[in-house]
What does this fold into?
Amino acid sequence: MLCVIVHNASMTVDNMRGFSSIFASQAGALQAERRNTEDLLAEMLPRSVAKQLRAGKSVPAQEYEVRRVATVSANRSSVELRWFRGAN
It folds into this structure.
């Protein structure tokens, strides 16, 4: 009887380790997806709007002018979006 209890406890611990590994992997994937979402949000919306949306606030419609500015760094070239609030 004791052998069965020890065996079942051992199997339970092994299962818990397996689930822990799966959860850790899923948590890492979730963090990566969150970073991708944040990057996309930063590319698509003005910083002030993105910040309000992340805080759960509603953002009234506004008109923005988009200016693309090419920047070149020592390692790579990139395109930076700069948002300017329209004068309207």
Notes: Residues 2-44 form the longest helix (43 residues). The mean pLDDT is 76. The radius of gyration is 24 Å.
